[in-house]
Amino acid sequence: MERGEWVADTQEAGCRDDINEEYILEFSDDQFDALVDNVEEVIHDIRGEDEMIEAELQNEDLDNYLECGMSRYKRRKDGGDDGEDNMDEREKKGTPRKVAWYFPLVSRLQRMFANKKEAKLLRWHEEGRNKDGMFGDDPRNIRPKQPSDRIYVFLQPLVEDLQLLWDGVEVKYAVVNKHFTLHAMLMTTISDNPAHRNLSGQSKRKGQGCSHCLSETCSLRLKNSNIFAYMGHRLWLPKNHPYQSMDKKFDGTRETRNPPPHLLGSDVYKKVKDVRTVLGKRKCGVDHEGDDDGHDEGIWNKKSILWELEYWHILAVRHSIDTMHLKKNICESFVGTIMNIKGKGKDYENARADLEDVGIRPELYVKEAENGKALPVAATTMSRKEKKELCQFLHSIKFPSGYNSKCARLVSVKELKLNFAMMKSHDCHVLMTSVLPVAIKNVFPVKVRETVMSLYFFNAIEQKVIDDKLLTALDRQLHETHCLMEAFFSPTFFDIMVHLMVHLVQEIHYLGPSYLHQMFPYERYMGILKSFVKNRKYPEGNIISQYGTEETVEWSMTYLDPDNLIGVPHSRHEGRLDGVGALGKKSMNPEQKTYDQAHFLVLEHMELVEPYVLKHK
Is this prediction's pTM over 0.90? Predict the structure, then answer.
């Protein structure tokens, strides 16, 4: 096939991948009509119109849900007049209550490899970077190697695609113009803590909310605050560590326990394989701790649908901890506690009463005063003067453009507090790792300051390249930081988010650097998807329509030559005025001395002459 030509019988050939043999430069009417038909087919695939699932995939002919008996359709106000014979049966019932829009995963991967430009980019990790063993031997590998129960209804199409990709699908590889069998797998899921409960099926009741420790989660029920405190982090330290024998500084006991073992997927599967899953809302009268017959499933509410994947039980970490939400929650608790911000701080009257129940730090117990009860000042609490100085410092600090939000908008010097509602997760990261260690250098006692400064740990794990030898040191440093927190902060400070920090280094061992498995890129892209909504009554439909259109246009443009645009008229003046300004040429004749100075200045800033400058300096 010669360049600039394209046969119009691509539909008879049965493969639209033939388009990418050469760029499309010229079209006849029949050829352009065939291209339009091809693009419409791609739009149909991308939008997933054949994959639209209404409520439950099984029992699709039923009008009511099996569990709760509620109608699957929003009834029409006119009741669907039986006399309207020409009306579709579904129109008589009304619109569905739940509709799932799904983007097929298999066809997306096939399009990526079928396009020559995209296929070359998929080989970048093999041909355009230093090999570090993080990818397999095949250059077509595009990912590193893996060293509410109702959401399952919507996940069924995805699970079916993942099962198909595990078995393998035939894909055309445009780089060499051959077909190969593509295999793909789901390495891990990324979600915040509430979404993890729905996706994994793990219950958070009874203080067993850790996704790694599971039933051996170390927790303590605080009666006055009515919450669980996740303490006892000394058990992750070596047995000969000095903190192990310090009883009065911690919970009043010597630590002799071993850390809970890391359970592999096969071990977890043995615990959940017999768990019964009931989709839909629970019926009235059913105990949330078990079923009607009193059967209790322990820490599992349901069996995750992802266990249907053939390889799910061999993964070491199936649901990763999202450091983005983790850092924001820890920052709010930490800053709210030291500044005693109402609603955010963890040091209050009930927290001091819990200290008395646990029997530690008697100097901080609530004391009776003439005008009521008084709370002794803790080592982690700032005075009004110190809070004012901190707020003034934060209000005056300036960052490079694009590095962080403007701090003056995030802090109120008058009210002496931070506006966490306006702070993004990245703002919290910068505040904890870069700003606070400088701002409090003369405020707290030495040990408390060291605890705050050690939070730069988050900077270390966010690096794109991490040395395996440093991970062990980071892990030990993290455990020591946890222990220092237990020595100075009240038990109410240690919620599940603070406890999950313990397992961050362990996840890096299995999944790679932290930036590969966190929510930052996905949350940013959610902002783009939200901008697609033009009609707030149908947000999902707006997003599907706009996203499908954009992906189709971008995919089609990769087959066109960017230097020869189609349908764009060329100005007859194009090229005649290149290099000439609209107001004519301007010239100047400087003196020889000025010219030499300008020439020397340019030479000083050129890398080419830098070795000679250093040599003759």
Answer: no
